[in-house]
Write a structure and sequence with these properties.
single chain; alpha+beta; 9-stranded mixed β-sheet; 3-stranded antiparallel β-sheet; 15 helices; 16 strands
């Protein structure tokens, strides 16, 4: 069997975090009842006219600057004509000829070291509505809330060679956009969607193979599986003497396979022409510098500062800064309680464990830095022991409860009364003569059992250090 090389480029659609749509004043809030956020403009009513949202342009510029792109000074919008039920105008306002950003890059970590993936362009456009397929009634319904929500489409160069590089690129891209506040990039809510363009060629060949495009992938797991399956499908096809057809395919994650939707359109199929209802877009140096001046501290800068300012190990700093949500939470909690390493330990330990247990992303965290700082102080002062602190944190994580109030209401404060503890430990010793005999016979592990029985009798609220000291004295 011949050796093949995979060639992958991505088209990443990102919904921007504006409060209103790109060409009208309708809300972009996610989760509203169907067709609640609509007006004549975003439902394509005759005679309605678009007005460009300035914030969309500034978010697009911010992303472009962060990715090292050139900003197009004199641009315009184009009309992309096609019919589809969730596209009420029968066209989409986009940018074909003069995209707002060009020629950027994203640097990723690959098994071979640092690798640069080129950004061909970033353009602005409006999103379509959403088809809802009702299998019970055997029909499709349309929700136009998403119609007109602002998008940027980030088109990479075909520089990736496997699914690992694809996921590394998407993680870096997503993190950058989240740091900028341009989008929450929640794949599960559709605010970040990925089209994968993939072809294979014999190793060493100069020419690209025929590519296929898989549309609207919305999880890293699905993207990984889709890339690997499509690569294998194309290789098997070529090895059996067949040819790859340029087409658009849809990925079925439940079945782990893709199927053809339609032949791949070219630009001429969409009959592009300049959008007649929008004036040209002129961006001067002053505007660009104003956007550049608002750029926040990015991950690489934050990483270096965390190690220097807070004394965090490389690993901790890398995990915390990989998510803007975690980084913001860490900084605010550390500022409140003045114990950065303790805050880091709770985020790196229990927080990451609970996120994994509940299949959540850091962006789904709902507890406040104030409540995290209070918990750190409770545990650090010995007001609650470590076991109780973990139980309290589970409640803080789930319900954003005030840990101080919760501890008081549930009587979870650590018991430090030596007389009370001595009385309980004496009773435990009387009730477990075999363990006492084992301890005095040289089996030091028997003391662990007696400590456990004491903690059980105290409902986990005793100070473990004090229990150990008193028990050792009595034994």
């Amino acid at each position: 069997m011949k050796e093949y090389e995979t060639v992958i480029g991505l088209e990443v659609h990102v919904e921007l975090a504006t409060k209103t749509k790109i060409f009208c004043g309708c809300s972009t809030a996610f989760g509203a009842p169907p067709n609640a956020h609509t007006c004549p403009v975003c439902t394509g009513m005759p005679g309605s006219l678009p007005v460009l949202n300035k914030q969309v342009v500034e978010y697009a510029m911010a992303v472009g600057l962060a990715l090292g792109c050139e900003i197009t000074r004199s641009g315009k919008f184009d009309r992309k004509n096609y019919f589809y039920p969730d596209n009420p105008q029968n066209y989409q306002i986009s940018q074909l000829y003069q995209p707002i950003c060009r020629n950027g890059h994203v640097t990723i970590d690959s098994p071979q070291g640092k690798k640069t993936v080129g950004i061909h362009e970033i353009h602005m456009e409006e999103d379509a509505g959403k088809l809802v397929h009702d299998t019970w009634e055997d029909c499709s319904l349309i929700d136009y809330n998403r119609s007109g929500v602002p998008l940027i489409e980030i088109v990479s160069k075909p520089d990736m060679r496997d699914s690992e590089e694809v996921i590394a690129f998407l993680h870096k891209l997503r993190m950058t956009i989240q740091y900028l506040g341009a989008s929450d990039c929640k794949l599960q809510e559709g605010s970040m969607r990925v089209d994968v363009n993939l072809s294979v060629r014999q190793a060493g060949a100069k020419e690209y193979g025929t590519r296929t495009e898989m549309k609207n992938l919305n999880s890293f797991k699905a993207i990984t599986r889709a890339v690997e399956q499509e690569r294998d499908r194309q290789v098997d096809l070529l090895e059996s003497g067949g040819t790859v057809i340029q087409e658009t395919r849809r990925w079925d994650d439940a079945k782990g396979e893709s199927y053809a939707m339609r032949s791949k359109e070219d630009a001429q199929d969409y009959r592009y022409f300049p959008e007649p209802d929008l004036v040209p877009l002129v961006i001067d140096d002053e505007w660009i510098e104003a956007v550049r001046g608002k750029q926040p501290e990015m991950q690489e800068e934050k990483l270096a500062r965390y190690k220097e300012q807070y004394g965090l190990p490389d690993y901790d700093a890398a995990i915390l800064t990989a998510s803007k949500t975690l980084a913001d939470l860490f900084e605010e909690a550390a500022e409140i309680c003045g114990k950065p390493k303790k805050v880091s330990n709770w985020l790196m330990g229990e927080t990451m464990r609970l996120l994994k247990e509940h299949a959540m992303e850091p962006e789904d965290i709902r507890f406040s830095p104030q409540n995290l700082a209070k918990l750190v102080n409770l545990a650090d002062s010995g007001a609650v022991n470590h076991t109780v602190a973990k139980e309290v944190f589970a409640q803080v994580f789930a319900h954003n409860l005030d840990p101080e109030i919760y501890v008081t209401e549930h009587g979870l404060q650590t018991v430090n009364d030596e007389a009370e503890l001595r009385s309980v430990i004496e009773r435990v010793i009387r009730e477990n003569p075999k363990s006492v005999e084992d301890y005095r016979g040289g089996k030091k592990k028997a003391a662990g059992f007696l400590v456990g029985q004491t903690m059980k009798a105290m409902k986990g609220k005793a100070d473990p250090g004090l229990v150990n000291r008193i028990l050792t004295q009595l034994l």
